[in-house]
Structure formats: structure tokens, C-alpha cells
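User: For my dataset I need records formatted as: sequence, then C-alpha cells, nothing else. Please produce one.
Assistant:
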Amino acid sequence: MSYRNKTYVIFDGDNDMWAYVYMMGWKNSERIDFNFHNAHDLAPRTERAGEETVKHQLRERFSSAKQVIVLVGEHTKNLFRFVRWEMQVAQDLGLPIIAVNLNGRERMDTNLCPPILCDEYVVHISFKAKIIRYALDNFPDEFARRASVAQAARHYDDSVYQNLGL
């Protein structure tokens, strides 16, 4: 199961922390079948460190990640200092990226998706535990099997959501 691998989560810490906290709550709940190993749990981050120090620490966290979740909120596409940089690092490392729409859309939201992800082989899903788990279980293998030239936004058919009870 892919979700047992380390997952690096990219998000707007100023506006979308609530979604990250929800994911941590799902992970810690005994009633919800949801788990992921958070790459951010590996070492404490120095909050007052300079940009280069923070980027160095974040890059170290990427070293153990096997997939990436990008929480796509209203401001994500406009964040360049860390968020866009993290997405670029994930792409450079060839990691599968799961774009999770915080507005509930099940496909790429062209108004909110960061341009760096728009034409890439990234799966776009809604912010629901079951479909996130499904993507963590399935997308990394699909990503590994894709043709080397495959570039296109991906999403799951309505039938996948229906089979998951969503």
C-alpha cells in the first residue's frame, strides 16, 4: 500500500493549515481508515531560520518521501517562496503528485491549480479521506507505469467516487 510510504504534504501554512490538521486528525482517528507517514514529522523545523536554512531542511524531508500531496486552496497558485519551490523539487525528484482540491472539486480547478502542475501528470481529487487514501494507494504505481512522455492532468472517474461511497 503506497500510503505506508512517506508522504510530503505541501500547503499554504497561512490559509490552509485547517486542511492539514484535518488530515492529521483522520490519521489519528481509530474510526477512520486513513494513514500516511508524514515527511514533516521527521525533524522539527526552526521557525526563525532564514530561507536557505528552511529550504535545506525541507529538501532533507523530501529525501525520504515517496509521494507528494499538494493541498490546493484559494491562494496556493500565488505562493512562490516555498510552496512553488516545493512543487518544483517534487517534480525534479520525479515524485508522484496528488493535487487535493480544498474546494471539493474532483478534477483540476483551472482557476486555483498552480500553473506548475497544470500540464503535468498529476492526479486531481477532492478533499475527502477516502479518495485521498485511494490516490495514495493507487496513483504512485500508475505514475511509475506511465509513458515517459505522458503529460496531462489526471482525475478519477465518477465511478471511483461512487465505489468509495462519495
